[in-house]
């Protein structure tokens, strides 16, 4: 009698009784005992155990990788949306047919719309920025001091200086990376150059003016920290030759997903002709691309789990072949076809469930400490594995969505059980007399 049959022999009488009387009961102690013994390595079935180990490792790595990648994609989406919409606003209202000189009344009307948190008149224009240590192109924005203090992505990210008395101090606020690039800090001066200067008999001359740096902010998105320069609204109007005129009114709302309702409310509240551009139009391609990438990565990484499930099929099939004599002996002792079927289902499901659980823990551990791991690897490898200049973010974001984690774990366990059905059915279908005769 082989090892498996000897293991089952201890339970022969009880197993036979349970096999018959336990037909209506799922997964008896006898079935669990035999299944767990078959999972242990034996000299005669060592190769089968190796396949089981690789199946377990494949499922573990597949689940962990899926959780980490989905968490990173969620983090990218949330961080980029918060950064982009925290600085650029949810909607831009611009005038048509006439210069935007009645911006105060339009901003007041927009502020009355339910759900509007901020309606900030703004002058915007491209400019050159220079210091004795460097020069670069920037996007200059003119805002009222009270609006700048309410700007979600800027006011909360102040690193140095102050926005106090911003309207009258005559200073500017710049991003941390721009300050590093130009080699300046709070109190130093930065010169801004605009091609649209004063009108002279010889044409338009460039305008250049030096401003003290009143504040330095760090939004956390390198593109913005490198690009934006905020000026007092009146100063920006003078600098860009906008006589009591603004470029747009930037609007922040409580619910960015309800932009259709906001557009309808603007049509009722604002009487003058305006054109509205919301965040969906401005960033649609960007966020759609992120979603497509997330879906494709999910499909690709799911293949890892599927391959591991196929390993379960091959491993169980070889185990059934290796334990043919054992199965025949168990059947002659009274074990039913259902008992044999459940024994091999337990083996396959145990590999899949254990691998999914360990992968779940490993994935959560990595996802929750991803940026710390990145910093450690940067230090150990003396490399920059997540350059902010390329990925726009100063840290590696990760947000674990419980619903996605449950989907990954549930899918993995289901695949493991489905992969176990065919080998288990083959084992249950063995004719014990024929099997013993062929030995």
UniProtKB/TrEMBL annotation:
Keyword Methyltransferase listed: no
BP GO annotations: lipoprotein localization to outer membrane; lipoprotein transport
Annotated membrane topology: Multi-pass membrane protein
Pfam families in the cross-refs: FtsX, MacB_PCD
Gene Ontology CC terms, in alphabetical order: plasma membrane protein complex
Primary localization class, coarse: membrane
Domain annotation MacB-like periplasmic core: ranges: 55-268
Superkingdom of the source species: Bacteria
Protein location: Cell membrane
Domain ABC3 transporter permease C-terminal: 298-432
Segments of this protein annotated with the region Disordered: 1-20
Keywords of the record: Cell membrane, Lipoprotein, Membrane, Transmembrane, Transmembrane helix, Transport
Transmembrane segments: 47-73, 296-320, 340-366, 405-425
Family affiliation: Belongs to the ABC-4 integral membrane protein family. LolC/E subfamily.
PANTHER family given in the database record: LIPOPROTEIN-RELEASING SYSTEM TRANSMEMBRANE PROTEIN LOLE
Protein name per the record: Lipoprotein-releasing ABC transporter permease subunit
Source organism (scientific name): Methylocystis heyeri
